[in-house]
Amino acid sequence: MGMIGFLILFPLVVALVLLCVKNNQARNVIASIAAATIAFASIALTVVYFGKDSFISLSSPVIDYICSAIGIIIAICILVYAVRYRNILAGVLALVQVAAALVFEFGFSHGIAVASGLYLDSLSLLMALVIGVIGSGICLYALGYMEDFQAEHADAPDRRPVFFALMFLFLSAMFGVVFSNNMLWLFTAWEITTICSFLLIGYTRTDEAIKNAFRQIVMNLLGGIGFTAALFFIAVNFHTLSFAEFIAAGAANPGLATLPVICLAFAGITKAAQMPFQSWLLGAMVAPTPTSALLHSSTMVKAGVFLLVKLAPIFAVSFVPSVMVILVGGVTFTFCSFMAISQSNAKRVLAYSTVANLGLIVACAGVGTPEAIWAAAFLIIFHAIAKSLLFLCVGTAEHHIGSRDIEDMDLLFERMPQLARYMMLGIMCMFIAPFGMLIAKWATLVSFVDTKQVTLIILLVFGSAATFMFWGKWLGKLAGIAGSPENDEQTVHRSEWVSILLMVVLVVACCVGLPFISLYVIEPYIATVFGTFSRGIADGNLVIASVATAFVVVVLFAGLGKGKAKKAEVYLSGISVDNEGRTFSNSLSKETAATARNWYMEHIFGEQAISGIGTVCTALIIVVAFLASVASLLGMF
Amino acid sequence: MDGMSIVAVVIGTIAFTVAAPLLGCLLAGIDRKISARMQGRVGPPLLQPYYDVRKLLEKDRVSVNASEGLYISCALFFTLLAGGIFFSGGSVLMSVFVITLAALFFIVAAYSTRSPYAEVGANREILQVLAYEPMVLLVAVGFYMAIGSFDVAAALGAPVPAIATTGLLFIGFLFVLTIKLRKSPFDLSYSHHAHQEIVKGITTEMSGPTLAKVEVMHWCENVLFLGWVGMFFLWANPLSILAAVAVALFVYFLEIVIDNNFARVKWQAMLKWSWLVTIIAGGINIVLLTYL
Hints:
Number of domains of chain A: 1
Number of helices of chain B: 10
Low-confidence stretches of chain A: none
Structural class of chain B: mainly alpha
Shape of chain A: globular
Mean pLDDT of chain A: 87
Number of strands of chain B: 1
Distance between the termini of chain B: 33 Å
Number of strands of chain A: 6
Distance between the termini of chain A: 43 Å
Oligomer: heterodimer
Number of domains of chain B: 1
């Protein structure tokens, strides 16, 4: 209890302190120590409580009132911005949500006491590790990054205190999401992540940032309203606000649970930026890179899939919500993987890949079998680590080569040899065997086959092929090696190296240690939730994958660039003028430099061609699911 | 039990490392002989591919950078591992994933040279993976649904061969096999025939021992892919292995005929046709397997 309270409250206190500290040096010290403390606390919590799933008796009207107050403050905050930037929709939605929440809290939830306000099980501990270790690693990284960022935007006022306060507030809210059993508290923490994200996306206050921030808030407010609606149904039909009790009762009575589960799933889908709501996550890439890494890859969007994974026992027995979640996730995975092919902006590739992978997790949650949840848990772990690593690498590269375009990363291996290797490792972890992500995808495929999800199988195989294409060509760009080494790595901040290295170590440790994580972490969780479990991948294959990963890592870091072959010039088919510069003499005896760009196949996989179809499909699926569940509810009475 | 399967993979990989280059080399020799006869030529000696590789191995190590050779070694290693997994009776899907890793190393090797021709070749090679990968994955899924396991060894205990319920998948697989075997009309990234429009494509900058490794890798790949063809025809009868070998050889002959009778197509056509075949043949077969 004490440790959970510490994890939720300590980042909050740090946030308040950082809000007041204007001195750069002081902030560096405070934030570094705080980040390390949070990381160690979350590790300690996991070590102490692992395998001891428990509910913590905590029921206090004071906390309920604080939650209401926070809800009102959030609404006021959104309203202020909505008025200042003349965004009527956001204002209206904020009003609707706060009104609904207040009516609910004082009209319906009265008399429903939740005895155990907090809980912990293996899944929440796993999430706590992701938030605590990766999240604080990113906060550490932000210290160096924001220094460069401020130097580049010297004319803008230094608003870093706000930035770091929001980052730590965000960590606190995420711990709230994963440990709250009282759904009212869960909802409050959920809304705090929404507003933090809104403020961080709009951090630079450019027109584009403001526009994208409002897109985020509108979509997530819709999800928030869905969440509130779910709370109404749950309070009225199940007379409880305990998440665990609702899941148990819902699994026992799926007919009655259909509508609230659809509403909750809708909230999860908006937060996880699934189609048709993927545009907010794409827009969020205007924010400084640590924001993208923290909120939009490793933690905030994970809150959405966390909620869906928790609901898996209900999806397993409830047809309509399960089909909705499966189809939305599957379509999102494939279509966003296609669109990633057409992007040359590294952060947009990362964003599309994030949305796509979340789609896969969402689909797994919808399938709801123990095997699918095994896959989902590993997708969450590997995606969080590898994607953070990639965001951090792209952020550092951007500050040192002056571009986040993949085409400009041509000579990264020469200019930033260490960073290029780390980026290659992150990329490989995302898409290729024997690295963890692909093992998780394998398990996903097996669970789809076993549950006879033909649509999902087809979507998965095409999406996976697309994944190979867009990661493969990026990897190829990085591997490009030519003469004239000019090392740009000397000026990278130490805090950036420390956190990048942290992610590298985590990637390698988790990929190589996959069989152990499965045995000691994921399988116990699944055993407690579902009882029985048979893994889709044999131990032998996991071990082979683990050994092969170690082999590739050794090659990447110990072998590359050490060959002793005699140096030759590249072939330019004719009269070359300067082989280093790939310049040759053309048919008019003029000089032409040979350049090669990656393929983006805009007309086949472009956003314009695909996004519309995907949006219409997924929107239809959601609307039909809502109508079907309402119809079935009416039919019951 | 699991310790056993890992030992089996290790032994299988060693056996494959010895046998596959021999078999693959002979297949390549036969290929050149048959192709020559189809074109009214006598053709080189049966062992010509071996002589070629031996000569390459004798040449100096020359490279445009210090990494290309290592990438190719990795590609070769993972090809051998994929073969070892498959022929020791291991998981088809694992074998598919590992050979994809080998393909990635091959592609990255070409990219690393920053040579214009090699880069175009690498881009085309990635596109080829995009074209064939969905079908290959569906084949593994179909095998699992028909046999009840991803393990090839399980096919030898099945009452009927997988082909009985996976006919359409098999046809679809034959279609993308042309890409995997680098045969015309889908030999876009590099071709056996001398100069194509992008010189030697993905292997433009590879020479000497490195190119020899590419050749050996290609032989081994061919043996593995023909193994995938054969696995459709295995069942509880040990004689089915002979049937599988016969079908695999026939399919190889068929690919030579196709190679000699079609002109190279543009990448758009390759992508369109292989995805259409995958959706129609693969999709229908998977639906049938699920609901029948």
